Amino acid sequence: VAAAVTAAEGARREWWDAGVAARIDAVQAAASTVAARTGELGELLARELGKPRADAEGELRFAQAFVAHCAAHAAEAHADVVIDTGAAGGHLRITQQPFGTVAAITPWNAPVILAALKVVPALLAGNAVVVKPSPLVPLAVTAVLGELAAGLPAGVLAVCNGGVEVGRALVRDPRIRKVGFTGGDAAAVALLRDLAEGLVPAVLELGGNDPAIVCADADLSTEAVERLVLASFLTSGQVCMAAKRVYVHRSRLEELTERYLEVARSALVMGDPLDPAVTVGPLASATQRDRVSALIDAARRAPGATVVELGTVTEAAMTGGGWFVRPMLVLGLGDEHELVREEQFGPVVPLLGFDDEDDAVRRANDSPLGLAASVWSADEERAVALARRLECGHVSINVANRGGMHLRAPFGGVKRSGYGREYGDDAVAHWLQPRSIHAPAPVPARAYPADAASPEASPATPAPRTGAPRTGALPPAEEEGT
Known about the structure:
Blueprint: H1 2-17, H2 20-35, H3 38-49, H4 53-78, E1 81-84, E2 91-98, E3 101-105, H5 111-124, E4 128-132, H6 139-150, E5 157-159, H7 164-172, E6 176-182, H8 185-196, E7 202-205, E8 211-214, H9 222-233, E9 245-249, H10 250-267, E10 269-270, H11 286-301, E11 306-309, E12 312-313, H12 315-319, E13 328-331, H13 338-341, E14 348-354, H14 357-365, E15 369-370, E16 372-376, H15 380-387, E17 394-397, E18 414-415, E19 418-419, E20 432-439, H16 449-452
Parallel strand pairs: 3-4, 3-6, 4-5, 6-7, 8-9, 8-16, 9-14, 10-12, 13-14, 16-17
Antiparallel strand pairs: 1-2, 2-20, 7-19, 11-13, 15-18
Helix pairs in contact: 2-4, 2-6, 3-4, 3-6, 4-5, 9-10
């Protein structure tokens, strides 16, 4: 860690001085070499994580789309804002500067895209980056970042693999100026303790116990119900924004239960993640399997509850080893059961009836977490009105999980689901710091700033950003360091 941070410190100033246009070109060229290896890297990711190969390759392609998105907005993020501050010619210029050397600590469930969300905008903003992946699934993400680093100046991007001691050494290094972290809230608390002494800022994307609210007028066609089923079971349910508890208006509960079981028979096929027909692979570890299995056993013992097996199981899942847990739907649980209260992060979901929208909102919000949610209704205006009442950072309409994401949507949580945002048009800007440069109009030396800043002298709204179009390079006068 010390060597990686030292190398990053030695490389970061030249990387910033190269200018945003040169950084865009370098990152896009390096990312293109990753794209050429999508098939190979997708298989590697499927083997080490257990997610189906098509899902793994989709993660790689999504990361490539994110590179293009950030590149399209990087120049705009760097552009100066110039404000007239006085009738006699005063000007305030707001410029941008990087943090310096930053760190990214990434989880195991979507290692490539969750690393890209931090690394790509931070690099384009002119920072040097040191990454610590999860030791549970380090291979594909290390290969991707290594390919990216090979196309950049030495030291600008580095990977340090290891466990907790490596992560703590990284965030405790006084030369680290910002940290991006995706993981659980307990780990985030420990991380923040380490960052507090240096007053280092962080972006935290933590867990979510994401509710789905199915209204009385929801579409329950095969296609719509398949979206709802897959919203819970993609990557075997090991997704932070998966639909983890499904609330259904009581007038449609019986109908949705029947449709859910019917659709799941064909939509959920558990087996070897390299089999193209498989949609549900094993869990990532024995620890995950044991935890999810314990939640299912507790649900079976709950009074009035029914646990129903979903989908089909291939011979490979029954005889080939692996940390398999069959997808399950749980009916009849109370709101206080741990499967409803906790983020299960596995292939089991409770289906719960509600009486009216006030009841659904109250129960959906009754959680210390607030990452994502979804509302299912034939009336978009009604769905949006309901979404506004939910305490979370992202709401999807008639879809959930990855299907509800968009590159332009700022994504992050509220409450114990973290703070800060990723994605969005401002993805690069989150890794820049504003710097103000004020050339005031001549005023008496003893005047307070307010004496010279009358409403007539200062415009009500700032002038628009100067600089290049969104996709172009900044003109020389606007380049960093000039």
